[in-house]
Amino acid sequence: MEIRGKMTEFASDKENWYATKSKALFELHNFKECYEISKLAIEKIDNFHYNNDLWFARRIALSKKELGSIDEAIEELEKIYKRKREWFIKKELAELYFEIDKVEKSFYYAIDAICTNGFSKLEFKIGLIQLLGNIFKKYNKMEFANKHFLLLKIIREEHGWKIPQELQNELNNINIEEINLSSIKNELIKYWKSCQPKTDKSLKSKKLQGYIKKILNNNEKGKNGFITSNKQDYYFVLPKHIKFIENVELNTKVEFEVLELNNGKKRAKIVKIIV
User: Fold this and answer.
1) 21 class by beta-carbon count within 10 Å (0-12 exposed, 13-18 middle, 19+ buried)
2) Looking at the DSSP assignment, which residues form a beta bridge with residue 221?
3) Could you tell me the end-to-end alpha-carbon distance of the chain, in angstroms, rounded to an integer?
4) Backbone angles phi, psi at 198, to 5 degrees
5) Which residues, in sequence order, are bridge partners of residue 235?
6) For range 89-112, the mean pLDDT
7) Which residues, including other chains, have CB under 8 Å from residue 212's CB and lie 6 or more apart?
8) DSSP reduced 3-state for 124
9) For residue 224, which of 7, 60, 167, 273 sits 20 to 30 Å off, Cα-Cα?
10) Nearest by Cα to 60 from 258, 272, 220
11) What is the reported pLDDT for 205?
């Protein structure tokens, strides 16, 4: 189909079927079958549309979590996060890290998530606010924990939503008369901003050309190894779903971006093969 001079390609019936089936199975909590269908979709579909490859990968990760493989779920979500830095991906990583008691990492992702896209519609992030309250409770910083629980109370009452028992239990332990409810939202927004990670803002990329110098692994997860360019080597990871992965071999010429993280480490992201 052509729209305003540009050709727009739509998803095939097969891709739409897999996407609908995968989503339905996940919503029905049939996580085993959702995992199998989503994995099959990635294997069978050559060209994805509407970021469906990422949605399939996300459901695979979350299904693994529900099936008890939390470490694998985190590994999968971390890969997705590098490609799609949406607030809900950060939230899901924060929840998983909290579940395995890696509270510092959970806090990092939770704060990053709450700050993403601003603070105008916090009602969409009530699960995230609850998680932040639980994190502060874990750290035994009850003043901050209680402010998060009270903000949840305010948001729910504004929208006429029921207060769940878990939240009510926390509210029962708070002396509300000692707290200025009208200032809680602004106080927390100011605090969240002060803690916001700088990774996204400090991430820089530049495009280079080089040759595949070494392949360390070639398996069901994809390929990884080193690219050499201008007498310097760069570590790369190429997920299995990348369509040109089979053409990446020793001495293949590629164009790549260098991601320079604020921890000083560098990572190459292959953009295309140069023929």
Assistant:
1) middle
2) none
3) 29
4) -100, 10
5) 226
6) 95
7) 225, 226, 227, 248, 249, 250, 251, 252, 254
8) helix
9) 60
10) 220
11) 56
Q: Which pair of tokens denotes residue 177?
A: 């008369």
Closest CA relative to residue 80, chosen from 201, 219, 241: 241
In our burial notation (b when 16+ CB lie closer than 10 A, e otherwise), range 263-272 reads eeeebbbbee
pLDDT digits (tens, 9 = 90+) for 101-122: 999 999 999 999 999 888 989 9
Both tokens of 102, joined, read: 């890696």
Residues 146/174, Cβ–Cβ less than 8 Å: yes
The pTM (predicted TM-score) of the whole model is: 0.66
| Longest distance between any two alpha carbons in the chain, whole Å | 71
Amino acid at 175: N
Query: Who's near 144: CB < 8 A, 6+ residues apart?
Result: 136, 191
Contact 151, 167 (CB under 8 A): no
DSSP 31: H
Complete domains list, the chain, with CATH: 9-82 (1.25.40), 85-197 (1.25.40), 201-273 (2.40.50.140)
**CA separation for the pair 30, 207 (Å, rounded):** 42
94 SS3 class:
helix
How many whole angstroms separate alpha carbon 129 and alpha carbon 122? 9
